[in-house]
Design goal:
The protein is mainly α and 104 residues long. The chain contains four helices and no strands. The radius of gyration is 24 Å and the shape is rod-shaped.
Length: 104
């Protein structure tokens, strides 16, 4: 093989390796944080740190409770304060993980 042929082959291998690495990194992130139920549940629980997310979740939970049981109007508005405590976050994470596992 000539010197030019070896250089081209080396350059081709380097480019293919760089492309494979560039594709592998985002796919590894997606695998761990989106497709794996535990990673997805951890991310869902971490979103409870955001006040806007807690407010929307509280509204959704309140609507669901009241629509299921109209006499439960005393739940309106449901406070988001329990959502920032570790027991709720753990329950939320477990619920999301189980739901994610059963829907796959």
């Amino acid at each position: 093989m000539s010197q030019t042929g070896r250089r081209r082959l080396s350059l081709t291998c380097i480019v293919i390796g760089a492309l494979a690495l560039a594709l592998a990194l985002p796919l590894a992130y997606l695998d761990r944080n989106v497709f794996e139920p535990q990673g997805f549940a951890d991310n869902a629980a971490a979103t409870l740190q955001n006040e806007a997310v807690r407010d929307e979740l509280a509204k959704d939970l309140t609507r669901a409770i009241v629509s299921a049981r109209p006499q439960a109007v005393s739940f309106v508005p449901l406070s988001w304060m329990p959502m920032i405590r570790p027991p709720f976050r753990a329950t939320w994470s477990t619920t999301v993980r189980i739901r994610r596992t059963t829907t796959e």
